[in-house]
Structures are given as structure tokens and as C-alpha cells.
Specification:
Shape of chain B: globular
Strand content of chain B: over 45%
Distance between the termini of chain B: 38 Å
Structural class of chain B: mainly beta
Radius of gyration of chain B: 13 Å
Oligomer: heterodimer
Largest sheet of chain A: 7 strands, mixed
Helix content of chain B: under 10%
Order of helices and strands of chain B: EEEEEEEEEEE
Largest interface: A-B, 28 and 25 residues
Largest sheet of chain B: 6 strands, mixed
Helix content of chain A: under 10%
Strand content of chain A: over 45%
Structural class of chain A: mainly beta
Order of helices and strands of chain A: EEEEEEEEEEE
Number of helices of chain A: 0
Number of helices of chain B: 0
Radius of gyration of chain A: 13 Å
Number of strands of chain B: 11
Chain lengths: ~110, ~110
């Protein structure tokens, strides 16, 4: 399996613009997670899905953030409008039902200027 | 509020010596603990885990120790190798196959040849 695939790897955008991050989980995995990595807070869970349904979005920082999972092989994390403080590395991860660990993608480094 | 804490942002160790990475947690409901390793420009990868019913788990050069009464766990790497240089994240979950992983801020390990 190719693992969790994220795109783009790097994104530089201007403040106020819409940003969309994409993720393809490992085939057959039932859970998909979006994390954000910052120096101050480490890896923060933003939202996770089970069988394409959002289960817990309590980590989404603001209404500017939204996530969707239209099918089992694709998810998006959207920030609209983006702000400089959103600059971070965003990771997608997936896990199978009953699995004990999550598998991470390579991340998207977002820079908002 | 950070439920999993890694108080040492960085650690340097000579090749061949022991590396000890520490992690503290605050939530007594945590039942399963993991260590992830992250190289630059890559996603975190699972390294080793331990359930709360154990106090030690060993996998080759890597051993994780859990002290539930102190809410403390540590990762020992013996002997340390230059390829071990990476950021190590501690994570905790209320369940062995749970979906809520709480991560620390990471410790950057440098193994000096």
C-alpha cells in the first residue's frame, strides 16, 4: 500500500485566501484524522471521521476551519479565510477498526503570509 | 491544556550510549501509550507502545517503561545510533484501540557520531 497520501506538500498563500488540503487514507482504514503540528502544542487533533462521518470536531480551532470526507478514499481540510497564525504542518492519518496505532501522511506545510 | 507533556525539547547523546526520553501525562484515564518517531519532512511513524497493564515493553534497542503511579513513561534507546536522530512524540489514549490520541510536543534527539 502507498500509505496515507497528502497534497500539496507545501502551500504558500496570502492572508484571506482559501486553502484546501487533501488526504487519501490507506485503503480499508475506517478512521481518518486531521492533526496540526506546532512548536507550542505539538500534534493537535483537529477532527476525526469514522466511515466518512465526522465524530469529533472539538479540536477545530475556529469556524474558518472545515473538513469533509465525501467518500472512503478522500478527505479535505479547508481554511477560509486563512490567517498567518494558521501557518503550521497539517497531518492526515488513518487507522483501521480495532487497530492500535494511526498511520500518518507526510504532511502539508502551510505558510500564510 | 496539554494532557501529555514532554518537558525536554531536545537531547544530545553520543553514539553507543543510552538515550532516555521522558513523558508525563495528567489524565489517569489514559490506558495506552505510544511513541512515534518523526524525521524532517516526513510524517510520524509508530515506534513502540505499552498498555497500562504492563510496566515495560521491549523491542530490540527500544524499551518503553511505564510508571502509572507517577503518570510517567520513558523511552530508552540502547545503544543509540546516528540514524535515531529524529523528533520523538509521546502519545496517550484512553483505550488500547481508541481513536483519541493525545500527543506531546516532541523531543528532538541528536545522536552524535
Amino acid at each position: 500500500d502507498a500509505g496515507v497520501i497528502q497534497s500539496p506538500r507545501h502551500e504558500v498563500t496570502e492572508m484571506g485566501q482559501e486553502v484546501t488540503l487533501r488526504c487519501k487514507p490507506i485503503s480499508g482504514h475506517d478512521y481518518l484524522f486531521w492533526y496540526r503540528q506546532t512548536m507550542m502544542r505539538g500534534l493537535e487533533l483537529l477532527i476525526y471521521f469514522n466511515n466518512n462521518v465526522p465524530i469529533d470536531d472539538s479540536g477545530m480551532p475556529e469556524d474558518r476551519f472545515s473538513a469533509k470526507m465525501p467518500n472512503a478514499s478522500f478527505s479535505t481540510l479547508k481554511i477560509q479565510p486563512s490567517e498567518p497564525r494558521d501557518s503550521a504542518v497539517y497531518f492526515c492519518a488513518s487507522k483501521r477498526l480495532g487497530g492500535t496505532e494511526a498511520f500518518f501522511g507526510q504532511g502539508t506545510r502551510l505558510t500564510v503570509v | 491544556d496539554q494532557q501529555v507533556k514532554q518537558n525536554s525539547p531536545s537531547l544530545s547523546v553520543q553514539e553507543g550510549r543510552i538515550s532516555i526520553l521522558n513523558c508525563d501525562y495528567t489524565n489517569s484515564m489514559f490506558d495506552y501509550f505510544l511513541w512515534y518517531k518523526k524525521y524532517p519532512a516526513e510524517g510520524p511513524t509508530f515506534l513502540i507502545s505499552i498498555s497500562s497493564i504492563k510496566d515495560k515493553n521491549e523491542d530490540g534497542r527500544f524499551t518503553v517503561f511505564l510508571n502509572k503511579s507517577a503518570k510517567h513513561l520513558s523511552l530508552h534507546i540502547v545503544p543509540s545510533q546516528p540514524g535515531d536522530s529524529a523528533v520523538y512524540f509521546c502519545a496517550a489514549s484512553p483505550f488500547v484501540n481508541g481513536n483519541q490520541f493525545y500527543f506531546g510536543t516532541g523531543t528532538s534527539l541528536t545522536v552524535i557520531p
